[in-house]
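Aim 2, interim progress. The first record below pairs a target sequence with its structure tokens.
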Amino acid sequence: MTDMKHLSEMISSLPESINVIWSVNFDDTLPYDLIKFTAIMSGQEL
């Protein structure tokens, strides 16, 4: 999870009015070093 540090810092730097939902999904069909990442963001300050 230390690889997620940059993502965490980016989300933390957003204005508080921005809502973020994100997920990391592991997919056995992808190479072992890849993941599926999904992010949904909403807010007027985007």
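The second target in this work package is listed in the same format:
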Amino acid sequence: MFENIELSPNEYFKKVEELKNDGFEMMVDLTAIDWFRKKEPRFEIVVNFLSVSKNKRVCLVVKVNDDLNVPSITSLYPSANFYEREVFDMFGINFEDHPDLTRILMPDDWNGHPLRKDYGSGRIPVQFKNAPKVE
């Protein structure tokens, strides 16, 4: 059985507490979506939970406000630590009360968040073997 629930950041932590108390043993995944120019609000956090004992799955979709702040759930599910750091690093979404919200994939002095849809792709010219030179 699968359930999909949409929430605001204010409802998020309380709902995760309810899931934990209802026997959802595992937070399986946490990621973000950038709906740049497609939807408002622009960002969503998607978190998947699993109850092995009940054979149930729940997906929470959190609509992130313009302030880009969402409560951290590491106090309930310690495995969320690195997922939240990755979302912070790649999308710039802040997780309030996270124990160590620092970059995890990019260098500490990196500017920007590479998985945002408005982030520049950068260009490096590639010269293939035996190809005519391009200038």
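The chain has a mean pLDDT of 92. This observation will shape the mutagenesis plan for the next reporting period.
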